[in-house]
Amino acid sequence: MVDSVLTVTDLQVEFQQETSWTPVVRGVSFQLKPGKVLGIIGESGSGKSTICLAILGLLGREGRISRGTICLLQQDLTSLPPTTLRQIRGQQIGVVLQNPASFFNPILTIGQQFAETLRSHQSLTKAEAKSIGLGYLSDVHLPDPERIWRQFPFQLSGGMLQRVMIAIAISLRPQILIADEPTTALDVITQMQILNLLAHLQQQHNAAILLVTHDLGVIAQLADEVAVMYQGEFVEQANVRQLFDQPQHPYTRSLLASRLQVRTDIISL
Ligand SMILES: Nc1ncnc2c1ncn2[C@@H]1O[C@H](COP(=O)(O)OP(=O)(O)OP(=O)(O)O)[C@@H](O)[C@H]1O
Ligand code: NI
């Protein structure tokens, strides 16, 4: 039994702002384990998406990893050339990005992109890839998958693109799934459906999931461990029950308290 499929140690990420490099992720360490979900919560701008992009090698020119390692099993991803990293990403790490538009090629239809991804992983005819892809599109609650298959990314809403991205990620049955706010743009019913799909991937296929969300309900439902991020650092990392019952850091306490506040407001309506 493998203990950790992805081990991040002392990660520091910087972005170039004008002439100097500013650290936005500082000394972050964690492990992703098969069949387990690590949730990351924290305020906007604290560096959650940056961690995801660093793992995926998608920081772009303005970003760099200035310290630390990201090991997929024994292999350090930070030392790999971009082409190798892309291959690994496609095969072993599934991705749901916070900004789904950046994931799609604007000049190819959804169907072309979905089929191409499926066919690069398994030998399938175009017709087989289409029938598998359509099945996954209806799994993520997309109405009229046939029509969506023929459409271009710009013809779909952000929430629809997000669901297509989830369908593609899940169809590949990755060992590791990086999901950055996977349910943010979705209505409650669809959100539940998506969470069930993620839980299925975790439980039936033993995937390790990194789940970034601001929704504590989603955390309570899916996460095993939770890391709390504040100004570029993990200020607290604990088992989900322990975190909800005995938050240690003042920021975590205020986060949980604000959630309770919202609940009381709803109840008093
Ligand atoms: N390409 C970039 N160039 C410069 N700075 C960036 C870039 N991307 C992100 N940053 C900065 O890095 C910091 C962390 O951003 P990040 O998107 O990781 O936050 P986040 O925790 O995901 O926030 P949110 O909850 O709003 O999604 C922010 O201060 C942001 O302005
Ligand atoms: Ni983010």
TrEMBL record:
Domain ABC transporter positions: 6-256
Q: Which reaction does it catalyse?
A: Ni(2+)(out) + ATP + H2O = Ni(2+)(in) + ADP + phosphate + H(+)
Its annotated compartments are:
Cell membrane
Q: Which GO terms describe its cellular component?
A: plasma membrane
Which GO molecular-function terms appear in the entry? ABC-type nickel transporter activity; ATP binding; ATP hydrolysis activity
Q: In the Enzyme Commission scheme, what number(s) does this protein have?
A: 7.2.2.11
UniProt xrefs under Gene3D superfamilies: P-loop containing nucleotide triphosphate hydrolases
Q: Which UniProt keywords apply?
A: ATP-binding, Cell membrane, Ion transport, Membrane, Nickel, Nickel transport, Nucleotide-binding, Translocase, Transport
Q: Which InterPro entries match?
A: AAA+_ATPase (IPR003593), ABC_Ni/Peptide_Import (IPR050388), ABC_transporter-like_ATP-bd (IPR003439), ABC_transporter-like_CS (IPR017871), P-loop_NTPase (IPR027417)
CDD domains the UniProt entry points to: ABC_NikE_OppD_transporters
Q: Does the keyword Secreted apply?
A: no
Mode of membrane association? Peripheral membrane protein
According to the UniProt entry, the coiled-coil residues are none
**Which top-level group of life is the source organism from?**
Bacteria
In Pfam terms, one family for this protein is ABC_tran
EC primary class: translocase
Q: Which PROSITE patterns match?
A: ABC_TRANSPORTER_1, ABC_TRANSPORTER_2
Q: Which residues form the signal peptide?
A: none
Q: How does it assemble?
A: The complex is composed of two ATP-binding proteins (NikD and NikE), two transmembrane proteins (NikB and NikC) and a solute-binding protein (NikA).
Q: Which family does it belong to?
A: Belongs to the ABC transporter superfamily.
This protein is called what?
A: Nickel import system ATP-binding protein NikD
Species of origin reads Chroogloeocystis siderophila 5.2 s.c.1
